[in-house]
Amino acid sequence: MIVGVDHLALSCDDVDAAGAVLRRAGFREAFVERGLPNAAVKGLFVHELHPAHSIGYYEAGGGTPLELTHYGGPVAARPAHYVPLLAAPPGGQAEDGDWSGVWAAAGYGAAGAYAWPELGATVWALSSSGPPAVRAVLSPAADLGRAVAFWTAVGCRPVAEGAADGRGWARLAFGAPLPAWKLELVVAEGDPRSDSCLDDRGFPCLAFLCTSLERDGETLVAAGALETSGRFDVTVNGRALAVAFFRGPEGELLELVDVRRDVG
Fold this sequence. Notes:
This protein is mainly β and about 260 residues long. It has one domain (about 1-260): 2,3-Dihydroxybiphenyl 1,2-Dioxygenase, domain 1. It is built from 4 helices and 17 strands. It has helices at about 15-25, 100-105, 145-155, 215-225; strands at about 1-10, 30-35, 50-60, 65-70, 85, 95, 110-115, 120-125, 135-140, 155-165, 165-175, 185-190, 205-210, 225-230, 230-235, 240-245, 255-260. The longest helix is centred in the N-terminal third of the chain and has 11 residues, at about 15-25. It is globular. The relative contact order is 0.21.
């Protein structure tokens, strides 16, 4: 069973420098791990496989945590798949963007795009003065119906649908017992990459907590996932985990993290 959202990944070239940027924006550092081995099976999902990677885990305002990830080489120049909506601007510079109509039509109100130059990423944000918690995540799709069916199999519940600025969209919600495990997802017609990678610039991957990596992985494949890394084991922040990556039908990358299994 997929029980909750663990984090939204954010690519970076240096976890220490990027962590300082997140702390200035109002995120709290939970832990940092350096020199974690890169499983060979990740080769399907990165531009270049390096021996090790580093991560930093950050939280803000009860929203979906961010996981900074440096995969051992430079972040690719092309933008990653996911587009987050924050509850408040992160301190970056306002810029033009093309998702404002979708955010408003989906019920979030007026949102603006902001550049995080130090992170090479763009986020959308509402005008609150509180912490920049992740309020929702947008996933572009060439085939809206196929994408909604996939996310429904992941465990998201359809909330609303419509069209804005010539784009169809659907708002979904992933319920969970803890606020930080919940997620609101907007799937909107756009131009996703079928070959999206974990080391693309920005926000490349959503990670979910599950109770059976094998059974829940089979669910994703049956729902339309096109590729999987298969299981690999890693110890993070003192916890032994079983993990697998999946590429969905619209190029979206998902990570399953088995929270029950006693690995090793």
